[in-house]
Design a protein that fits this description.
heterodimer, A: mainly beta, seven-stranded mixed β-sheet, B: mainly beta, four-stranded antiparallel β-sheet, 10 strands, 47% strand
């Protein structure tokens, strides 16, 4: 199975400042169809998860444009250009290229300093 | 409005069984690929299994920790997907979510989750 790792696991940030989370996979996520199936999810306290980004960099409907995704192969990044209070929670990357299973990273806890 | 509504969670003893339901509103269930994902206390998200639509072959896949114990099924006439949890272990304690397919590009929808607690 593909192993997903994330860093940092805890990220205290100052409101209005940028934040960045890294995600690495144990194998390349470039699919034979040319797509890279790497998603990012947010789970706010007390809420269900929601997908922010799919296929590395495509934002889901309703996701603020301060969230962006990038990367290729085995290394990916989620960036928040200017952190807001509502961004507090856990963030997970997930690979969907080499399934089953779909595998999530361990999660990064974003908090406000 | 698209909604996914889980039900059926509860407190059970190790070795017992439980059946979770996920009723889908607002989009064509018969063509939907759906997954179960769980969140155990103090842990991260874990994919449990996936059901493709019958139109697309009806394939069902499971994560290794639940394979041979959990069974996913669906009733298209009731717009409902089920997760039968058998031979439950304490480590199966989690909030179980149903969700649209992680690879679906047309949207992302999750239920509110249902809590399963396995404890003696």
């Amino acid at each position: 199975d593909v192993v997903m790792t994330q860093s940092p696991l805890s990220l205290p940030v100052t409101l209005g400042q940028p934040a960045s989370i890294s995600c690495s996979s144990s194998q390349s996520l470039l699919s034979s169809d040319g797509n890279t199936y790497l998603n990012w999810y947010q789970q706010r306290p007390g809420q269900s998860p929601r997908r922010l980004i799919y296929r590395v960099s495509k934002r889901d409907s309703g996701v603020p444009d301060r969230f962006s995704g990038s990367g290729t192969g085995t290394d990916f990044t989620l960036k928040i250009s200017s952190v807001e209070a509502e961004d507090v929670g856990f963030y997970y990357c997930m690979q969907g290229t080499l399934w089953p299973p779909f595998t999530f990273g361990p999660g990064t806890k974003v908090s406000i300093k | 409005e698209v909604r996914l509504v889980e039900s059926g969670g509860g407190l059970v003893k190790p070795g017992e069984s439980l059946r979770l339901s996920c009723e889908v509103f607002g989009f064509p269930f018969a063509t939907a690929w759906l997954s179960w994902v769980r969140l155990a206390p103090g842990k991260g998200l874990e994919w449990v299994g996936r059901s493709k639509s019958k139109n697309d072959g009806g394939e069902i896949n499971y994560a290794a920790p639940v394979k041979d114990r959990f069974i996913i099924s669906r009733d298209d006439s009731k717009n409902t997907m089920f997760l039968q949890l058998n031979s439950l272990k304490t480590e199966d304690t989690a909030v179980y979510y149903c969700t649209t397919d992680p690879l679906w590009t047309a949207g992302d929808y999750w239920g509110q989750g249902t809590l399963v607690t396995v404890s003696s």
